[in-house]
Amino acid sequence: MNLQLCLTLLATTAISISTIVVDAKTYATIPNHSCLRSMDGMMESMTDLASAHPNLVTITDIGDSWLKNNVGRHDGVHEIPDGGYDIYALNITAGDSARLSNDKGKMLITSGVHAREWAPPELLARFIEQLVNGYNSDADITSILQHTEVHAILYVNPDGRFVSEKYPELYWRKNMHPIRCGGGMEYGVDINRNSDFMFAKDGGSSNHPCDDDYHGPSPESEPESQTLMNYARNLFPESQRKSDPANQLDVPLGEEIMGMYIDIHASGGYVYYPWGHEDSRSPDDDALQALGRKMNYFNGYKLWAGDQPDFLYAASGDISDYMYGALGVASLGFEIGSDFQQNCNEFEDEVVPINLPALLYAAKNVAKPFSTIKGPDVLDLSVRHVNGDVRVSAHASDGKMVNKIATDSTDFQEHVTGGQGISEVRIFLDVHPDDATDSDISYEMEALDGLDSSEETVGIVLRASTLSVGRHTLFLQATDSDGYKGPVSSVYVDITDIEARTRHGKTALRGGRSTRRNNTSERGGSTRRNRTSERGRTKSP
Ligand SMILES: [Zn+2]
Q1: What is the pTM of this model?
Q2: Of 143, 191, 202, 519, which is most buried, counting CB atoms within 10 Å of its CB?
Q3: Is 304 in contact with 311 (CB distance < 8 Å)?
Q4: How far is the CA of 282 from the centre of ligand 1 (A)?
């Protein structure tokens, strides 16, 4: 069952107190923003989610806010909880999610770095709920959670969030560290300028405590930054970090790295990726730009990245550049919606529908992001059951997603990763390609006129009688002529008793025979398979 979010508005004459109902339980929302859970309502709902799905969701207290680290030092003006806040991380994955596995891809998504940006935690929560509710009902989501740990920190800066919700008119952005400028109340450190990479670099942040982008007294001076970065450093493999990041700006990470970081902010409709500290391309721009472009395919957002036409301004010491530059993972951020205090119509009708699929797609690429993002995508995957046949068809595309931005805007050309021919589309029966061994079954899908371009419609007919009764999962993966395997798309096939007993007369020749994979040539990635040797075991629908 998909989660249905019902919005209930409990209106009074003076102020509207709104709530969100999730699984028949009511959670508090921000006044006049009935689509956005308040921080209290959000944490209550996430605690309930973890209780209801202990095998999928774990919540961990990973650190303390500035106020919790400095009890009694609040500003004496705002009604701030004296004890401050814990900072929590959720880990969403199938199986024993309390324990980090060594072989799952790791994804970290954050929101609430900037307190006044109200919509990002709600979007992230919707994504978490989509994952949890899709497990065992959506093949793609199930596959993702079986192969990926999705870590989420909804409120990196909970002190600031409290103030922003309590005093909306302040548009509070930073944390609550009371480093004053004169007698003013515009204090606090910008957690998105406080990272230990390109810290305080000229023009990318401010050294004036009253400014919105004040970087703080020193790199990672703030407990919110330390908490986030310690968590990330523990999560992502140390082996892929550079020894001297600031002096290795031109050294690419290569295509073997694991892990992805996404920071969700508001607003303006941007996808950003490194570099952010300067208007120039990173050494892994071919992969990062492919990732940014493929996000644009879903949300249509402009690309705010070095050497792109919509680069707005430099940000130094920002989290995104740190994750890529210092921790060696794929890194990007979103600027969602049109307002800090996002209106609900646009949030529900636009922000959520365009960004949930983007996040889901990103999650498919976490294990080897700089490699799979260059590979072809499997689009329009469909399964039809016809007289005992299971007809699977799909569109394998090397360019459609990565080049949508080039179709929409003359500022962009066809991307370097998007024009290779499709060399193979392979369908795996009940085993994810990353887990497949020699004895597992897979089939090569065929195009009507052979595989000869970067856009191919492919199909296969499986005989239901060769499959056992019940649910099967089909995993599809396309490879391009440069040897890049794209992200895996999956679909369920439910075989009924009647289908399984359907006898084929002359149609018995139509496909369905299995082969053992040749593991050596499969793993090599660049070996083009000789389709003429496949003995016609597949057929297009
Ligand atoms: Zn922000």
Answers
A1: 0.90
A2: 191
A3: yes
A4: 22
CA of 266 to the centre of ligand 1 (A): 6
Question: Which residues are within 5 Å of ligand 1 (an ion), measured at CB?
Answer: 114, 117, 265
What is the CATH architecture of 33-177+223-371? Answer: 3-Layer(aba) Sandwich (3.40)
Distance 37 CA to ligand 1 centre (A): 18
Find how far residue 67's CA is from the centre of its chain: 30
Instruction: Locate 309 and state its tokens.
Output: 């036409």
Whether the Cβ atoms of residue 85 and residue 64 lie closer than 8 Å to each other:
yes
Q: For 424-440, what is each residue's pLDDT tens digit?
A: 999 999 999 998 988 99
Other CB atoms within 10 Å distance of the CB of residue 379:
16
* CB-based contact 306:348 (threshold 8 Å): no
Find the 395 Cα to ligand 1 centroid distance in Å: 37
On whether the 377-534 domain is CATH 2.60.40.10, my answer is yes
Dist CA 231 CA 233 (whole Å)? 6
Query: Ligand 1 centre from 115 Cα, in Å?
Result: 8
The CA 327 to ligand 1 mean position distance, Å, reads 21
In order of 338, 375, 421, 534, the CA distances from 455 in angstroms are: 35, 12, 7, 21
Residues of the chain with CATH 3.40.630.10: 33-177+223-371
Low pLDDT (below 50) residues in the chain: 1-16, 97-100, 505-541
How many CB atoms within 10 Å of residue 176? 28
Strand partners for 87:
63
Q: What are the start-end ranges of the E strands in 185-318?
A: 260-266, 270-272, 302-304
Q: 156 alpha carbon to ligand 1 midpoint, in Å?
A: 11
pLDDT in tens, 153-207: 999 999 999 999 999 999 999 999 998 877 777 899 999 999 999 999 989 999 9
Q: 109 C-alpha vs ligand 1 centroid, how far in Å?
A: 14
Q: What is the pLDDT of residue 131?
A: 98
